[in-house]
Amino acid sequence: LFKGLEALKDLPCETNDGYRLPLWVNTGLMADVVRSLERGAEGVGLYRTEVPFLMRDRFPSEEEQRSIYREQLAAFAPLPVTIRTLDIGGDKALPYFPIEEDNPFLGWRGIRVTLDHPEIFLAQVRAMIKASEGLDNLRILLPMITNIPEMEASKALITRVYKELVEEGYKVKMPPVGAMIEVPAAVYQARELAALSEFLSVGSNDLTQYLLAVDRNNARVADLYQAFHPAVLRALQHIVTEAHAEGISVSICGELAGDPGAAILLMAMGFDMLSMSATNLPKVKSVIRGISSTLAKDLLAEVMAMGNADQIRERVEQALNDAD
Ligand code: PEP
Ligand code: MG
Q1: Mutate which of 85, 92, 205, 252 for ligand 1 pocket (most atoms within 8 A of beta carbon)
Q2: 260-312 pLDDT, tens digit each
Q3: Separation of alpha carbons 23 and 201, rounded Å
Q4: Whose C-alpha lies nearest to ligand 1, atom 8?
Q5: Is the peptide bond preceding residue 78 cis, with omega within 30 degrees of 0?
Q6: Cα torsion for 290, 295, 296, 301, to the nearest 10°?
Q7: pLDDT digits (tens, 9 = 90+) for 108-117
Q8: DSSP secondary structure letter of residue 20
């Protein structure tokens, strides 16, 4: 198996009729970085900064953050690294910053927390931009964006940090900034958010839970958490159409991107890259290399006309078996 992976590493992720689909990775720990590079990742679509924050007993200082982010950026340079601002709340609590709520997934999480605490946001963005000096491969991703003012406020803070750093003499570039699309409201404002972004990234884990009203971590309703639900697929297709209409790229960084069957559909929808855990990358690459983009498009058209998530999943699995 290892030999197989090694061989796959240097082969492009492209269909057998020549359609290229870059595979990126989701990271959190330095260990993910090493594994990702070994597997031929073409960039980082989501670096979850909660991970280093969770491993401490207090907020890391700006300088600590700069050094952690620098390690990630340097390991992948010149490949792009998408660093997400702190996404706490929901199911992710920092022991030193407790948030007590009845409905944490509908509460104070992601960008809501950091816009209410600009000192956290500003320190983090300063650390990211400083860390990118001389590498210029940073992209900043904003979690849980639900309305336009959140996007405008975040961008204003990022621009302020950038200008301050230039004034302080740092040789830095203004990084591309992107909104995560993971709340249904953002799906219906994808066009407006795209106009304010350099890229979009879909968080299908949260988007699925919010579209279907199913807690992503509740075993009792796990059967209802259907990634292939027609409503989810339609939302995904809509986001791609809107991002492209605005002339920007769109990726997906939820678990769905690492599911080989889903990857075929996502490619056919037009996602510009898929970002997944390094564990899933070789499997997805080998599936994409084994099919044609025409077949993927036909499969997508077929399942988009189906009304039942289980039937869609079965049809996709059948297509995977046929391709084997
Ligand atoms: C998502 O919601 O799909 C996502 C990638 O973010 P997280 O899983 O960290 O919430
Ligand atoms: Mg999310």
Answers
A1: 205
A2: 999 999 999 999 999 999 999 999 999 999 999 999 999 999 999 999 999 99
A3: 14
A4: 205
A5: yes
A6: -160
A7: 999 999 999 9
A8: B
158 CA distance to ligand 2 middle (Å)? 21
> How far apart are the CA of 301 and the centre of ligand 1, in A?
27
State the ipTM, two decimals: 0.99
The token duo for 166 is 């230039």
Q: What are phi and psi of 147, to 5 degrees?
A: -155, 165
Q: Is 4 exposed, middle or buried (0-12, 13-18, 19+ CB in 10 A)?
A: exposed
Residue located via tokens 């889903």: 262
Residue 206 beta carbon below 6 angstroms from any ligand 1 atom = yes
The answer, as to whether pTM is greater than 0.90, is: yes
Angle at 33 between CA 27 and CA 39, to 5 degrees: 105
Cα of 7 from ligand 2 centre, angstroms: 33
Residues bordering ligand 2, an ion, CB closer than 5 Å: 182, 203, 206
The helix, strand and coil proportions of the chain, stated in percent and rounded to the nearest 5, come to: 55, 15, 35
Whether 128 and 140 have beta carbons less than 8 Å apart is answered as yes
Q: Report how far residue 252's alpha carbon sits from residue 152's, in angstroms, rounded to the nearest whole number.
A: 22
111 to each of 45, 114, 142, 172, 211, how far by Cα in Å? 18, 5, 7, 24, 19
Q: Is 253 in the pocket of ligand 1 (CB under 6 A)?
A: yes
- Please report the atom of ligand 1 found closest to the CA of residue 91: 10
Burial class for 200, CB neighbours closer than 10 Å (0-12, 13-18, 19+): buried
